[in-house]
Amino acid sequence: MSEHKDEKSQLEVASVIDEKAYYGSENPDDKIIEGSEGVTEGEFKSLRHVADTLPYTAWLVVVVEFAERWSYYGTANSYGNYIRAPLPPGSTTGAVPKADRMSGVAGALGQGVQKTSAIKTFNSFFLYVTPFLGGILADTKWGRYKTIMIFSAVCLIGHIILVISAAPQVIAKTNVSLGLLILAIFVIGVGAGGIKANVSPMVADQYTGKLRKETLPSGEVIIRSPAVTYQSIYLFFYAAINLGAAGAISAAFISRDHGYWISYLVPTGIFCLVPGILLLGKNSYVKTPPRGSVILETFRVIKLALGPAWSINPVKTYRNISVENFWDPAKPSTYGDNLPASITWDEEFVGEVSRTVKACQVFCFFPFFWLCYSQIDGNLGTMAAAMTLHGTPNDLIQNLNPISIIVMVPFFNYIVYPLLRRWKINFSPIKRIYAGFLVAGLAMLYAAILQKFLYETSPCHDNLPSECVTADKKPLQSPINVWVVSGPYILVGLAEIFASITSLEYAYTKAPQRMKSVVMAFSQFQTAVSSAINFALVPLNVEDKFTWLFGAFGIVSWIIGTLFMITFRALDKQEFALNAIGTGERAGFADEVEPEERKV
């Protein structure tokens, strides 16, 4: 590598062809792709790419995620009514008396919409901050498997506290119940966050296949592609998340018919599957060992590179960061024989940090996507409570989101994406994410229009329709059927197929081996940023402003999505290069493979 080789220029000219090594041929199509099992460039470009078979350990990890998500959504989906609505008349558990179940809404603490929104927003924020803790511990100390086991115990303790908080004797003391609920949210957040950072990369760790040719029984020669396989892995992984969320449908009926302590007890029992399945496959999982203080080294590289670029003038700082030789101060080759003792890394590691930072910029746009998602997690349930229920629990409708994803994942995995590949249409990760922003914005505009009709048809109009009651405290609802609110839930599900699943795939494939958990945590941290924005908007998060809130989120999603596509359209051409990040010796392969097998 030249002493002043420009990292940015390398990436901008990177393509499938110039990332491939060749051996002994002058014909570009005859060049062998390094790291493949004899696949040439010509074959790579001309043959159909197909996902590989997934190992059974990957499916075990998928089941772990299913159980963990059931336990989470089986509790979190009930927080809205549990915190917002008061105890139904004559109830001590939050259950609705049998005679009132056609229109009654379960509740317990009676804290109103704004406080409910604040607590739920904190729950979401904290849940997506704690993955950093789990990611760092896994990458530097315990490894992913051990980290998941330890945080599973923490999460189980949190679920037990939650069950206690909803006991009839505790609910009678509102402040005590609310305090225990917040404590449970905190403990579950620590445990679930530690699991989230590691279970996503662990499922992909189970696949160790290489790029290779294969002849199908039909005689067609195809390419078994790791990139396509990872796409398939995360489609099914996300389906497991939503199957768990859909499995929590029972929570809406249990809380309405039997009360909240039983509703919270069921997912606590389901969560016990997590450590059980992890122990079942203990000797079969592909486990990644901790690889040292890569986080500290990364920050040191960034600090050295930023030093000369920093200025009190932010415009000048931005220009300095954008120059072609920005990373040179962190490269050992810059110093020649006068290498500082603080530089303990090699040239390759600087390249990994450079390209990982560049790739991770993609995630910085996601808070605005998650703002749209947050509405289906709370405010749409409040909207549903103001509609004619016909015996349907108002917090049941939100389960259409995971159900729609479960239905759409096989459709996209087996029909849509293979057809696009067959037709040579490059629906790249960047394009998929952009499509997700557009669909999420459409979902919010649907919700805004529906909310306007709800104001017009509710007996209380825009004066808190969800709290509109008769003189004897019975719900007085709009004639609009509650199932009309299905649209935003289904559209957001489609948006998640495009954007959220792709973000998991992107975080895994673009991170160096030693930093996969931390990079995954960074991608998930964008949900926490979204929650922080939502928290700042709590004063506006009231029913009489829902139309403007939904409409604004929809327009913002379209604008930010378009800016995202403009900003990162060049990454489409760099996809192969970015997928090669961290496959070198510094990535942790030095002790795992023979030298001739290493990719540089």
Highlighted features:
600 residues; mainly alpha; Growth Hormone, Chain: A; 3 domains; 3-stranded mixed sheet; 3% strand; membrane
Your description of this structure?
The chain is mostly helical and 600 residues long. The chain has three domains: 1-38, no CATH class; 48-290 and 352-582, Up-down Bundle (Growth Hormone, Chain: A); 291-345, no CATH class. The chain is 60% helix and 3% strand. The strands form two sheets. A three-stranded mixed sheet has the order 1-3-2. A two-stranded parallel ribbon has the order 4-5. The longest helix is centred in the first third of the chain and has 32 residues, at 174-205. The model is unreliable at 1-25 and 581-600 (pLDDT under 50). It comes from Cristinia sonorae. One of its GO terms (molecular function) is transmembrane transporter activity. The chain crosses the membrane at residues 148-171, 177-195, 233-254, 260-281, 359-376, 396-420, 432-449, 482-506, 518-540, 546-568. One of its GO terms (cellular component) is membrane.
Note the beta-strand portion: under 5%
Average predicted confidence as pLDDT: 83
The low-pLDDT segments are 1-25, 581-600
Mind telling me the C-alpha Rg? 26 Å
Number of strands: 5
Overall CATH class of the largest domain: Mainly Alpha
Oligomer: single chain
Major β-sheet annotation: 3 strands, mixed
Terminal Cα span: 12 Å
Task: Examine the secondary-structure arrangement and name the CATH architecture of the largest domain.
Answer: Up-down Bundle
CATH domain topology of the largest domain: Growth Hormone, Chain: A
Classify the helix fraction into a percent range.
55-70%
Fourth-tier CATH superfamily name of the largest domain: MFS general substrate transporter like domains
Taken in chain order, the helices and strands follow as HHEHHHHHHHEEHHHHHHHHHEHHEHHHHH
**C-alpha geometry:** globular
GO molecular function: transmembrane transporter activity
Family: Belongs to the major facilitator superfamily. Proton-dependent oligopeptide transporter (POT/PTR) (TC 2.A.17) family.
Transmembrane segments: 148-171, 177-195, 233-254, 260-281, 359-376, 396-420, 432-449, 482-506, 518-540, 546-568
Main location: membrane
